[in-house]
Amino acid sequence: MRSDLPERTMKFSVRIIKLCRTLDDAGSTQRTLAKQLLRSGTSIGANVEEAVAAQSKPDFISKYNIALKEARETHYWLRLLV
Questions:
Q1: d(Cα 78, Cα 57) in Å, to the nearest integer?
Q2: Fewest CB within 10 A of the end CB: N or C in the chain?
Q3: For residue range 1-44, what is the model confidence (pLDDT) as tens digits?
Q4: pLDDT (tens digit, 9 = 90+) per residue, 37-70?
Q5: Using N-to-C axis directions, what is the helix angle for 28-52 and 57-81, rounded to 10°?
Q6: Residue 54 and residue 78: Cα distance in Å, rounded?
Q7: Could you give phi then psi for residue 3, rounded to 5 degrees?
Q8: 77/10 Cα distance (integer angstroms)
């Protein structure tokens, strides 16, 4: 069974980019938070893509764990912005 996670994380990254563009036009605080959000939010998909091409099961697990950590960080930044 093939996972749809790479496609979903790509769509999420696009949504994060759009949000950050909007925040970039706001005040300096929002702009600063948007930079953090952009880094962590787009990193999720990048790490999932790396996991798809993993060379071993431990490498796969490591990349997915990094993606999970980035997702948790992104959740933090989103909560802070709200």
A1: 31
A2: N
A3: 678 999 999 999 999 999 999 998 888 899 999 999 999 999 99
A4: 999 999 999 999 999 999 999 999 999 999 999 9
A5: 160
A6: 29
A7: -80, 145
A8: 19
Q: Indicate the helix (H) or strand (E) that contains 27.
A: none
Inter-residue contact 48 to 63 (CB < 8 Å): yes
**Mapped to the 3 state alphabet, what secondary structure does 1-18 carry?**
CCCCHHHHHHHHHHHHHH
Q: Can you spell out the DSSP letters for 52-69?
A: HT-SSHHHHHHHHHHHHH
Helix (H, G, I), strand (E, B) or coil at 21: helix
The label of the residue with tokens 């996972």 reads 3
Whole-Å CA distances, 47 to 26, 31, 79: 29, 24, 22
Q: Taken in order 10, 12, 15, 19, is the CA torsion positive or negative?
A: negative
